[in-house]
């Protein structure tokens, strides 16, 4: 049986689990498929080469029995400070896609590096809405699953992964146990298995090289350990000061200035942030 998996950055983890549960199957991953902006016709043509094709890309009008839409697990309640940033002049994203709103906003306002860490505190987090993200993110995830084959299994899946504590490394990088449970749901729904979650051994984590901390002040809301560890390409820091220095340096190196930096988030955040300056 040939199985195609196109789940963006979650492809490798899910494919490994499916291979462990379906050892006689040939499983191929398409982690970079989204970069080609696949059309409905392209997805239809690609999926026809497989007995089953599991994909997080919008399915459109694809009604093939072998095409299975499953959304990525995205959840930003643990890491609400993560945003994407662009250079307005070149329209290019930053080389490292994850950015801190607080750091980027301070850079945009010309605030000196040594003062930026003062904004990583509970009062600022509360004003920015960081402490109220759980329901918003949970409802968003539920909506994404509503149109997938897992719409009936979402409640069980979400209950299992949330009771384990912090189940995300970043906003779209689930930890291995979360991908395991998701892959078990897929195996049971798509391939007619009757697997228990605990019967599947946890595989090595495929997304742990990139980590964003659960800030002190936010961690207490979820009763989980706090952290200040930033682990990104070219950055390994256990302090907010180290992260500030890194991002300011990266913006300058990439030709980003306070006048051309574009924060891809709601302008309302900047308004709320302004009262602390």
Describe this structure as you would to a colleague.
With 277 residues, the chain is α/β, with parallel strands linked by helices. It has a domain at 73-173 and 210-277. Helices cover 36% and strands 13% of the residues. A 4-stranded parallel sheet has the order 2-1-3-4, with helices on one face. Strands 5, 6, 7 and 10 form a 4-stranded antiparallel sheet that branches. It is globular, with a radius of gyration of 20 Å. The N and C termini lie far apart (60 Å).
- Care to count the β-strands? 10
Cα-to-Cα separation, first versus last residue = 60 Å
Spatial arrangement of strands, main beta sheet: 2-1-3-4
Strand content: 5-15%
N-to-C series of helices and strands = EHEHEEEEEHHHHHHHEEHEH
Radius of gyration, CA atoms, in whole angstroms = 20 Å
Low-pLDDT sequence parts: none
Q: Helicity level, as a percent range? A: 25-40%
Look at the helices and sheets and give the structural class.
alpha/beta
Overall 3D form: globular
Number of helices: 11
Q: How would a crystallographer describe the biggest sheet? A: 4 strands, parallel
Mean pLDDT: 93
